[in-house]
Amino acid sequence: MTSAAANTNILVFACRWCGLIGADGAGRRRTELPTSLRIIPVECAGYVEPDAVIRAFASGAAGVAVLGCHVGGCRFNDANHPALKRLELLKTLLDATGIGGNRLLLGFGTAHEYHQWADTIRDFHKHVEGLPSMKSWLPATQ
Amino acid sequence: MNPEFIRTICPYCGTGCGIVLKVEGGRAAASYPDRENPVSRGSLCVKGWFSHEFVHHPERLTAPLLRKGDAFVKISWEEAVALAARKLRETADKYGPDSVGGLSSAKCTNEENYLFQKLIRAAFRTNNVDHCARLCHAATTVGMLQTLGSGAMTNSISDLAGADCILFIGSNAAESHPVLMGEVYKALDRGAKMFVIDPRETPVARNARKLLRLNPGTDIPLLAGMMRHIVDSGLHAKDFIEKRTENFDALRTFLAAWPLDKVASETGIDEATIREVAETYAKAENAALVYCMGITQHACGVANVIAICDLAMLCGQVGKPFSGIYPLRGQNNVQGACDMGALPNLYPGYQGVADPAVREKFRKAWKADLSDKPGKTVTELINAAGKDIRALYIMAENPCISDPDVNHVMEALQRLDFLIVQDIFLTETAKFAHLVLPGACFAEKTGTYTNTERRFQLLHKAVDPPGKAMGDFEILCLMGKALGLPFDYASPAEVMAEYAGLVPAYAGISFERLERAGLQWPCPDENHPGTRFLHGTTFTRGLGRFVIPDYTPPMEKPDAEYPYYLNTGRVFAHYHTGTMTRRSAFLNREIEDPYVEIHPEDAAALGVGPGDWIRVTSRRGSIVTTARISDRVVKGSIFAPFHFTEARANMLTNPVLDPACKTPEYKVCAVKMEKDHEAKAR
Amino acid sequence: MLDLVKQKAKEILEKKEADGVLGLRKGPFDVIHPHVFTTPAELDALVLEPKWLFAKMARSILRAKPAAYRLAVVLRGCDERAVVELVKRSQIDRERLLTIGYACGAEQAKACLCSRPYPEKLDAGEAVAGVDPFADERVKAFLEGDPVLRMEKWADQLRRCIKCYGCRNSCPICICVPCKLEDDVWVERGVIPAEMVSFHLIRAFHLSDTCVACGACQEACPVGIPLMTLQLSMRAALKKDYNYEAGLDADRKSPVLFDFIQEPRPGQNVPDWVDSTGKKP
Q1: What 3-state DSSP class applies to B651?
Q2: ipTM of the complex model
Q3: Which of B534, C36, C213, C278 is the most buried (most CB within 10 A)?
Q4: Mean pLDDT (whole number) for B377-391
Q5: What is the pTM of this model?
Q6: What's the CATH number for A3-129?
């Protein structure tokens, strides 16, 4: 893996009813995945506040993925629908600043099969790796 | 009761932003930016936004206090004023008039400063009056007097927006004069080029085209190198030099001793950069030189200021709009305190104590005999405490945190026969007093402050002082009367009328005119609109003089025992000795703990991580503070904000003074560091 | 227009419809500052310039007063929209607040890049046409064109931030106690510039569906960061995707937080699945 790839940190919020199943499956099958990847399991994608996504970028994540169940299939009474709407709006803000909404991957109902999950993540990683660094927006070492 | 909205001026820095205080039920409840203030135009920094927070703090002094043993007991104003007057009078009678001294306040109003220096001079026939400008821009007053004839900022803050090139030297205005940076950024948006000369990568530097990270205290070689290159390239303003200046040949000779390779080796800045900055400055149509403590707080502070003036005159960048020399005055009214003559060698309006004609003028006006001997400066007054100086009257100043080598200051104050401290809180200095007088803060008085661009601005009283505390104007009137002076002023406006009558440059200024808008002196008559920039047709002294700066490298450099450079200064959320900001909930939460900035490599070598407690020691003293790992400082240097009473940077600093202006060398001394193994539990 | 506003304000006090009128007073020496007028005679000194916004001040006055107290406020368009947003969040009791709305002039609309320079309840003045902020050159420079260049442009601006909190303090909607920006779990304390990502994007996003484009943030910023521009894209997205504009209708809450799919609004499109990379599963 190139050092650029290793430095492309991806943070994944995966809802344990859908997104995490794909992650778990991929892990079980030892599917090849980028190493600079961290997964945070959440009960529901609706649990992921946009501020946490913002904080992830502030802490050096190059890309953030939020994976949940398909809209209409949320275990928690459609909580993922407002989550989706909020995060779409956050993408708009990221686009406005030039950071790029494409650093935020939203997969609702698309990543519960292990191969889907792996493909999605690998493609996302590759895509983010090619993006220019956000360094100018991050604090100089303290 | 409905809320009232009162217009006043910020009590923190010399930018002089306008604040509208919301008063509810007799309390200052909120601060809003005053949209009509020409300096701040609807903005404030974080300190201004929370300027009301400390006003009603429970620790406000509410009654005069007399020391009995180790405790203070409350006494009445009658007792307090009578005692103060008696003790000061007895001291002067026993040890002579020059055994008494006063430290005036750069936080108090012009009217209060004028009364204070008049009291000391007229009641005791001494010139032992000074204030904290000694610790900061005294070098400016002395240096600019020699070169230009006037020690004040030559242009207005708004002129910065029109500059094409801005040089910052030893100024971290983004933290010490934040709102002023707005004008700088307007210039940058127009394409202006900004360079920063500072050993530290400050927030200003991060927004500049280039940072020249020079070795500490090597400003004169750098400025000399720039001037040398400008002259060698023929970029100097020949016409201006010929018509408006004198002594250029001496400067040429001086510059011959500073070829660029020598400058590069002395300063640590490469020749190409020196050339680039010099050429950009010289070629700019309008170029501004902004400087602050990084220039003045050195053992060669006066010489540093002189070098700056030489450079500006060399390029003809004084005496017109959008250019000039900008010494950024620190305190909200330090410009005013100087203007009002709270200085040992100058009367109000910078008229000399030693000049017989001037002395006679003031003698007549004040109906009192006056001393012809310049008095002692702040630093000298403290040093002489218990020896030549037996009694001190300190108004709203806190030398136990702000003076260098504070261990020595505390010892000195204890040697006094009588110490009066007038302040709003029981400060570290007040704790040594025999008598404490409770004064008023900015929200509790009507009067004027003069900001760094010479602008008189009017404050309006918004709330009453707490308990029995009194406005400093009222206190000084009582003290004056107790000392036999006719201090029967009905209001501060009358005080202004008096000093306006004695200083031609302030003659056109009155409270009534100031109600509508601030006025920049010189303002010689009541129709004059105030003066935006100085030295337009001639310099205050006539011709500008190229004075030769006497370069003195730092007096205490790192060595084997004390291997790090210590630099001291300010941060954005606190102000000076923290008397007000550490008692403001919001500001104190923003920055709660004392810290020093340490370079990551130095931290690693010491085994220190972020937030760890460390002990920093110099030849003067030692403090325990936390480590902030940062590459703002270079390896081998640390930076300590001086706001924290529990870890006073001035325990460490070197009390060596610039011989010409008596300002301490706060910016350079040597320290050692180690991890603090008896770290207190957090 | 000013005379009409004064007249309406006086009527309100005379009829005791409110106990005070919040507006600007021109006092002695022509000094202008906010004031709560309590008598019709005082209202002779009412003025409408410069641009002070009163929504937040009205809220704090009402909170400090007993429940029976009613306040009238002299408002321009954006101020009224801010009041509406505060009403939506139960911060101002509609029953206790009366408004006297007046229209801004064309110059003011241009200066603020305001698309709606008049209140919905217009009591005085002629409404002028709004200005399209997206047509402004400076806005375009920050919102259109190569994203990498724009990312650097924004960073250059945000690096000037002196963390005065003026944007937050002056914003009429920012009333949260405690404020997340003060929590060092979210935003690093004690350093300037304020963290570009955490401080500025959290702040901007918190206002995403409630910003009324009053410009107070931008006007309070000492260093001229185009803060209002930061909000414009999100406002446009809400308009496009949900036909929603903050501050217009006190009974319509934010579609981002409400409008659940169980009760979709007419015409609302509820997707079955979403993949922002555009791939179908």
Answers
A1: helix
A2: 0.93
A3: C213
A4: 95
A5: 0.95
A6: 3.40.50.960
